[in-house]
Design a protein that fits this description.
UDP N-Acetylglucosamine Acyltransferase, domain 1; 10 helices; alpha/beta; Spore Coat Polysaccharide Biosynthesis Protein SpsA, Chain A; transferase; nine-stranded mixed β-sheet
């Protein structure tokens, strides 16, 4: 199909957003990992969707499965501006037992297979498969162009990581032209890159295919005995052996706020990584630039009043230093340092927040001291609660991570109150 349109306009983005993300502990008790809040007002899934939108892609689908309500509601509220009359679509595709009554989405590839008829209806030439649970900025048009220019059957988005850290990833061995010669899942001895033996190429879970090619592959895979119906486990290794698989370096398409900035990508799949990535945003010059109007992160922008800071007495001064405070917050006589407050957080007098990530609609009573913690949305923190001084004591009622980050949810607070 010859066309003078940009490749992105002939491409759809298929976002895999069905995962629970169990390493985020109780943060995913009521929501899927892609629906977890991040950065003061966005959700994790907004990064993949915004990258697609900013790259010129106007046809998208989101495959959901685990506890999808908050994710679906967020997309309905924040991503409902697509217009079908302009050939723009964002379809939400819950696992709906389309193949058989006992079959939900069995793997990442099966999530696409079960929606082949819907994808066919889009009339697209290329399909971009995305994970819905990573934080990064990337111009997918660059990757799609590379896919076409190299005549690849699949192009795999890859991070350049130190070789010793690559044992946690799916790793690509490549030749000088970045053609993938082997795909190794979490290898003990990862292969280095040509010309850079101390670095390895790790899969980001991002793939570009020509749709007609992938469609045939998925139908064949559906019939294969023993297949897990997974892109990383089945589809990509098959193409490495039988077709042309190409690696695309994230550094070639990463969107940066300045040329010398590092290529920013984070898997915020653990409480420690989630807390750190949020707190990093309070740095003087954060590596992830949420203020860049050239590559905005789109989200549901609820109507909130400006944040308010009140009281100006000794030990009762409402102020925030090196922090981010969202709309609808009332900081009443509270000292806040290196913290991130989402919308509608209300704090009260004589309290201290330090390196705290406070999700929306949290109320913090008087004489509270919270340090190095994550507070789930809607929690009511009772008067006198102290967190972050004694990890052993905190662990009696709250979830304390390996690095000493404390997760606080309402059932934990209720248990603490009952024991007082």
């Amino acid at each position: 199909m010859e066309s003078n349109k940009r490749l992105s306009s002939r491409t759809m983005a298929f976002v895999l957003a069905g995962g629970r993300g169990s390493r985020l502990k109780q943060l995913t008790d009521t929501r899927a990992k892609p629906a977890v809040y991040f950065g003061g007002k966005t959700r994790i899934v907004d990064f993949a969707l915004s990258n697609a939108l900013n790259s010129g892609i106007r046809k998208m689908a989101i495959a959901t499965q685990y506890k999808a309500h908050s994710l679906i509601r967020h997309c309905q509220r924040g991503w409902s501006f697509f217009r079908a009359e302009r050939n723009e679509y964002l379809d939400i595709l819950p696992a709906s037992q389309r193949v058989a009554e006992d079959k939900w989405y069995l793997g990442t590839a099966d999530a696409v297979t079960q929606n082949i008829d819907i994808i066919d209806s889009y009339g697209i030439e290329y399909i971009l498969i995305l994970a819905g649970d990573h934080i990064y900025k990337m111009d997918y048009e660059v990757m799609i162009q590379e896919h076409v220019e190299t005549n690849a059957d699949v192009t795999v988005g890859c991070l350049t990581v130190p070789r010793e850290e690559a044992t946690a990833f799916g790793v690509m061995a490549v030749d000088d032209s970045l053609k993938i010669t082997s795909f190794l899942e979490k290898p003990a001895d990862p292969p280095g890159m040509p010309g850079d033996p101390d670095s390895a190429l790790a899969s980001m879970g991002i793939y570009v295919f020509k749709w007609s090619y992938l469609r045939e592959l998925l139908l064949n895979d559906q019939e294969l005995e023993g297949s897990k119906h997974d892109f990383g486990g089945d589809i990509v290794p098959y193409i490495v052996k039988n077709g042309r698989a190409q690696a695309h370096r994230f550094t070639d398409s990463c969107v940066k706020h300045r040329s010398d900035a590092p290529a920013y990508w984070r898997d915020v799949g653990t409480i420690d990584a989630y807390w750190q990535a949020n707190i990093d945003l309070t740095n003087f010059d954060p590596e992830l630039d949420l203020w860049d109007q050239n590559w905005p992160i789109w989200t549901y922008s609820e109507i909130t009043p400006p944040a308010k800071f009140i009281h100006d007495e000794e030990n009762r001064r409402g102020h925030a230093i090196s922090s981010m405070v969202a709309g609808g917050c009332i900081v009443s006589g509270t000292e806040i340092r290196e913290s991130l407050l989402f919308s509608h957080v209300h704090t009260n007098s004589y309290s201290i927040l330090e390196q705290a990530v406070i999700l929306p609609h949290v109320t913090i009573a008087r004489h509270v001291d919270l340090r190095k913690c994550v507070v789930d949305g809607g929690v009511s923190i009772p008067e006198g609660l102290t967190i972050g001084q004694d990890p052993k004591e905190d662990a009696e009622f709250f979830e304390v991570s390996k690095s000493g980050v404390t997760l606080i949810t309402q059932p934990m607070v209720d248990a603490w109150k009952a024991a007082q």
